[in-house]
Amino acid sequence: MGQTYGGLIKNLWNRVHNDDVFGLAAQLAYFFLLSLFPLLLFLVTLVPYLPITLEDILSVVRDYAPGDTMALIENNVNQLSEKNGKLLSFGIIATIWSASNGINAVVRAFNKAYDVQESRSFLVSRGMAILLTFGMIIVFVVALLLPVFGRQIGEFLFNVFGLSDFFLTVWNMLRWLVSPVILFIIFVGLYWFAPNKKLTCISVIPGAIFATLGWILTSLAFSYYVSSFGNYSATYGSIGAIIVLMVWFYLSGIIILIGGEINAIHMKNTKQDC
């Protein structure tokens, strides 16, 4: 590898400090917050056209959302679901614009990690951000649909081949591994296409693995902390849930950006130009 683990950690910390990862993560948290509810609005308006329910969407968020933020999200989503279904077109526009702003912030951060300048035109960079946004939405919808169709596929195989009840139990357990796999695919796509640098799919896998595991563990740990120790409502009153949501997004931004720094270090250590 060319460096000891201690040297790698020191190098990573220096890059995190020099590239102002914590400051950029704060920017990402702001854009994530702006993108969240338009995205949920878009997904809510899709519900009548897909074999999923509103509860399916909320259950995915509930697995990771910390503390009282889930109540905040559910209240807003329920209010949106009671509105006119013609909000679909608005939801698409708002989601694309808000989320693509977030992707643009990620692009700038990744370019900084690889020490490259953004040379793509505004239309190209914005188009790429929109395509990545669409890709993430599609992958998220697939993640919602797989448990629905996965159960049907498992029951079909069970009946056709006369498999044991144990197979059906294992199949149902495997279906719920879909969420981490979907996250991994999203991160691979983000790390691969976002930077203004030619990369291979293989070269971004270390950062994608770190981001997937890091985001899941950080989200679960922060959720436990908020529910067990953190009392943000006592400090911030009625906006406590918003503050918790922003902190969660901030931690998520840090994890994503560190994943990009890990990929840049990996590229440099494998003798590629960085």
TrEMBL record:
<keyword id="KW-1133">Transmembrane helix</keyword>
<dbReference type="GO" id="GO:0005886">
    <property type="term" value="C:plasma membrane"/>
</dbReference>
<feature type="transmembrane region" description="Helical">
    <location>
        <begin position="21"/>
        <end position="50"/>
    </location>
</feature>
<feature type="transmembrane region" description="Helical">
    <location>
        <begin position="87"/>
        <end position="107"/>
    </location>
</feature>
<feature type="transmembrane region" description="Helical">
    <location>
        <begin position="201"/>
        <end position="226"/>
    </location>
</feature>
<keyword id="KW-0812">Transmembrane</keyword>
<keyword id="KW-1003">Cell membrane</keyword>
<feature type="transmembrane region" description="Helical">
    <location>
        <begin position="173"/>
        <end position="194"/>
    </location>
</feature>
<keyword id="KW-0472">Membrane</keyword>
<dbReference type="InterPro" id="IPR017039">
    <property type="entry name" value="Virul_fac_BrkB"/>
</dbReference>
<feature type="transmembrane region" description="Helical">
    <location>
        <begin position="128"/>
        <end position="153"/>
    </location>
</feature>
<dbReference type="Pfam" id="PF03631">
    <property type="entry name" value="Virul_fac_BrkB"/>
</dbReference>
<protein>
    <submittedName>
        <fullName>YihY/virulence factor BrkB family protein</fullName>
    </submittedName>
</protein>
<feature type="transmembrane region" description="Helical">
    <location>
        <begin position="238"/>
        <end position="258"/>
    </location>
</feature>
